[in-house]
Here is the input.
Amino acid sequence: MIEEWDQRFIEKEWMEEWKEEQKKVIEQCREFRKEMREIAIPLRINWIDEEVKKLEQEVVDAYLNDSQLRKEKKPYWFRKVILNDLRETDKKESMIRKLKAERHYLSNMLRNQESNKVDVSEIKKRIESTITLNSRGFINCPFHEDKTPSMKWFPDSEVFHCFSCGWHGDLIAFIMKRDKMSFKEVIKKYE
Here is the structure.
């Protein structure tokens, strides 16, 4: 009997340690993804710049070859047969336009990332300080008629859960639904 209890206790301790390690690994993965996004966008922009230069040069060369053949008064069908590059010129010009549009999008995205860095955890702390909970961590649910508090705040997972209507969400989702605001409006309000 004592051995079974010891075994269960050891398993429980091991599970708690494993959960802590799992949380650390998940956080490290999030940080790694964030760093990779910050690195990948400038690398992609540099690649696009080089590719556009190369394609533009190929298009210019094709048109120069065509103009040279025109000066020599070669017929149209002959120029088209000789200059395979010129046949692909439309594709290359289309590719150049697409790459320039992607570069524009990525540079805007990079600019927005740098200017719109928001510390969501700080905003959540500010929101949390405005919500008054009773001694057990409950409040009246604003999403249905509620005479006794049925919405509980779980500080470990930073979520609300209403045991009457079943609504479940974090602080920002709570403010968005309660005040009928968009995510951006909530962030601006509590910044």
In short: The chain has two domains: 2-115, 120-190. Helices lie at 2-71, 76-82, 84-87, 89-115, 120-130, 171-179, 183-190. The beta strands are 138-139, 151-154, 159-162, 168-170.
